[in-house]
Amino acid sequence: MLAILGLLTSFLSFLYVIAPSIRKFFAGGVCRSNVQLPGKVVVITGANTGIGKETARELARRGARVYIACRDVLKGESAASEIRADTKNSQVLVRKLDLSDTKSIRAFAEGFLAEEKQLHILINNAGVMMCPYSKTADGFETHLGVNHLGHFLLTHLLLERLKESTPARVVNLSSVAHHIGKIHFHDLQGEKRYSRGFAYCHSKLANMLFTRELAKRLQGTGVTTYAVHPGVVSSELVRHSFLLCLLWRIFSPFVKSAREGAQTSLHCALAEGLEPLSGKYFSDCKRAWVSPRARDNKTAERLWNVSCELLGIQWD
Q1: pTM check: above 0.85
Q2: What pLDDT was estimated at residue 244?
Q3: What are phi and psi of 286, to 5 degrees?
Q4: I need a labelling partner for 79 at 20 to 30 A (CA). Which of 5, 8, 136, 213 fits?
Q5: Cα–Cα distance between 158 and 315 in angstroms, integer?
Q6: What is the dihedral sign for C-alpha 301, 307, 309, 314?
Q7: How do beta strands 286-287 and 281-283 pair?
């Protein structure tokens, strides 16, 4: 046992010695766009922390009017204050949005539409991961309800404003974990069998299928959409898993910072000439391989229709 601990200690020491080189390698792609955003309006969910906060910071730096849509308004105000001071952009606003409650989603959308006549970029960034089994206010399994259905409804409610503001973009944060996911239509809510790890993967596949079907339905409207894998990022997303928190800490040289994790979201929100790639999946600021299940048009259409039924909306 002492020998094993000695080897582990030596290995970790070696990792930290070469950490700068490792971090540079694993930092991934960088958004190269120089596009400025004066007069543009952006909504980012979950932008009070992590990747969303760094995305909001960069878009504010480019002159956009940025709405931080988050559940924790006090934390959102703290983030907004920091971003305003950093970017010298006073147009960073915070609005209450709880994606686990459709009443909150509808209230946010109603308030935003009354306040703003344009919306150029919607970034569906917020999410949960590895939650013990629980349900949202509307009775949806939490991963499905927050990661997929919440953003599905939000996009539906804001879509006409996006169409009125073209060219406009919708960026959906998914994950490489979608490769493990599967849509179990007979048990979408995980009531028969539940694994919190797989539940996250299933919801990330749902994000991929939503992006694919949304792109198909938006053809010719001037609104385009993209799915993003931000990378393995140091964020609060893993807070529900002690093991992942421990692994993230041990292997920190391999983990992206929140700023590095925001780069692909920024690329898909800003890069010029991306319109022909609507519906595609990006990682490290370039197109990435998509699992066969995420390319299944029949599953994408069925998930769309089931999502509408669950939410009680019509979206043709």
Answers
A1: yes
A2: 52
A3: -150, 160
A4: 136
A5: 12
A6: negative
A7: antiparallel
